[in-house]
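Please, structure for the following, as tokens.
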Amino acid sequence: MKRNFLFFTAMIIALSSMYGQQLDRQNADKFFDEGKYETAKGHYLLYKGLDPNGRDYADKRIAQCEKCNQLITVANYLWTDGQQAKAIAQYREILAINPKDPVARTRAGNSTTAPSTTTVPRHPAEPEMVYVQGGTFRMGSESGFDDEKPVHQVTVSSFYIGKYEVTQAQWRSVMGTNPSHFKGDNLPVESVSWTEAREFASRLSTATGKRYRLPTEAEWEYAARGGNKSQGYTYSGSNTLGNVAWYYDNSGNTTHSVGTKSPNELGIYD
């Protein structure tokens, strides 16, 4: 009787494991079809851990999730920026991988005529943006402040970041004020708090219908280091500080117009 009970228990455990494998794969496929690539990727990782025989399938799907997530990030930005022709090309790449992606199907799947190239008028505060492909890097510094230690590995998803610092003209067109000590339309805005900067991003989002936010600390450091194009410079884009930044020795104790120094590897200035 005891043996039978143990055998029955083992069968239940085995069946539960098999059911879990099937459920994770079904959920992963469902989320993939819905275009929810980050969620799908998580379920494929679970499925991969539960079923050694499904690793090849899971690895293929994980790679597809990452590719589609990168494409959809670019496509959605181009679409909201009024660059429909370029966006549709990206959406069609997604459909080649996932024909069921709902956003790509809606915006490109039924397109039978040449896409419109009409550019939506830009808000005067809209920044030029630089695409930063996601990746993994070593964040922090062993020779820096205590809150920079220890150096640790961080992975970030793809994102966009401003090509230049926010200018005073951009700030004023959104917030209606200019708190900067050094005045000039093309000078970077300064003397603002983190809360005020977040409010600026929120108002800019409302004014443009696009989603702007502050970068995370990890995103900012990854971009400053040059992202996946990093050459390992001491400073952001150079081993010579004066080539890429205004500081005590060369600034004359004042701010300077944005974009007047050399960019880093991603094309980001200042």
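Strands lie at 129-132, 135-139, 152-156, 159-162. Residues 2-33 form the longest helix (32 residues).
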